[in-house]
Amino acid sequence: MGKSVLLVEDDRAISQVIMAALEAEGCAVDHCTSIARRNVLIGTKRYAAILTDVMLEDGDGIATLDVVLERHPETPVIVLSAQNTLDTAVRASEAGAYEYFPKPFDLDELIRAVLQAIARSGDTGGNLDADPADSGLPLVGRSAPMQTVYRMITRVLRNDLSVLILGESGTGKELVAEAIHQLGHRKQGPFVAVNMAAIPAELIESELFGHEKGAFTGAVAQSIGKFEQAHGGTLFLDEIGDMPMQAQTRLLRTLQTGRITRVGGHREIELDVRFLAATNKPFGPLIEAGLFREDLYYRINVVPIELPPLRERLSDIPALVEHFLALAVHEGLPRRSFNENAIAAMQRRNWRGNVRELRNLVFRAVIMSRDDQITAEALGSIFTEPALGGEPRREESDFIQAVTRFLLTERPEHGTVYDRALAAFEIPLLQSIMRQCDGNQVKAAAMLGINRNTLRKKLVEHGLASV
């Protein structure tokens, strides 16, 4: 089905060339030459994408872009300009433009950007409510951090460079991988996703590279691995930081040669696979602790794409909420909305679970609410921790990171982890509690839930009696 595009351009020759190219790609193009006519058209029709020149016969296309985005904030706008200056590019970006093309532009690159913008918006135009195709975490948002992500995605669609997607859990790393595949030149091939953290270490090599019959106990038949399944398409390894060292060595060789050997086999199999990986762990501590090969890291990190946590793109929450409300209706739940106070309350939250946590909250609120409009007060009974409007629970986050660093750097021997972890963290814990209680051992013991004599003994033992 054709996609509806609005072209606002007063240069006749340029207009004809762009319209012909877009129509050849199956787009239905409306054309106008003025801001006034543009405003009439967007008032009666919703477009999948809008292309606009800057200097038009009745005004500045960038200066009036807010009119477009106020009516259709979900519609990507591509700015064209003969004023090839940094100032114009910055103005377009600050005004909310999806992309900026200086004239003269490469026509193929422009058309590709338009099609990618349409695919990203997930909107084919028209006047019907959106009918989401799936319930995954969306790549939704017009914030500056997300615009950077979108631009990075467009840079890797026409090549097979290895991409490393970085981000906290719940930020949508697999969605980025899917977008690279679905919008790229391998979209006709398979997309195979593997979560390294979900596979037992002893089975990872077999899962990825396959095995021959009799290769190990239980290998009663030949098995085709994920690499072979992804031939001609894309293989995405999520949580690659959890991959054991032996499998890393085999993976490095595969990426270098483009060939695999099944476990228990001897014949090399040549493959054509686009490789993507993701992790929510910092590689520095893993490499320093000898848990991840440095050469493999540089091999997979050709193009890094870092997904921002939700707390760094709070302005995207209204759009994300609207998307999830539409998904809820698609799932058969009642149609609801959030008032301004509720949205503001959500924008004050830390969102340690990121977009996934927001999605779950919206669905839970829709189910639990008896009113069509959900208020901040109603959300207060749904939120668990941290409280609405409260400060981010940084102490807990820092503590978890400290424990992780301890396990990676100290690498305690098997059977000693619990005792060594307690010994490593008991002193700072006691110091912190005693400071909070102003040195009052009675209060500190009550807070810790231990006997005062036990607390006194531990303070003396660690030389903290004067804390």
TrEMBL record:
SUPFAM superfamilies: CheY-like, Homeodomain-like, P-loop containing nucleoside triphosphate hydrolases. Keywords: Activator, ATP-binding, Cytoplasm, DNA-binding, Nitrogen fixation, Nucleotide-binding, Phosphoprotein, Repressor, Transcription, Transcription regulation, Two-component regulatory system. Residues 139-367 form the Sigma-54 factor interaction domain. The modification 4-aspartylphosphate is found at D53. Pfam families: AAA_lid_14 (PF25601), HTH_8 (PF02954), Response_reg (PF00072), Sigma54_activat (PF00158). CDD domains: AAA. It is found in: Cytoplasm. Member of the two-component regulatory system NtrB/NtrC, which controls expression of the nitrogen-regulated (ntr) genes in response to nitrogen limitation. Phosphorylated NtrC binds directly to DNA and stimulates the formation of open promoter-sigma54-RNA polymerase complexes. This is DNA-binding transcriptional regulator NtrC. The gene is ntrC.
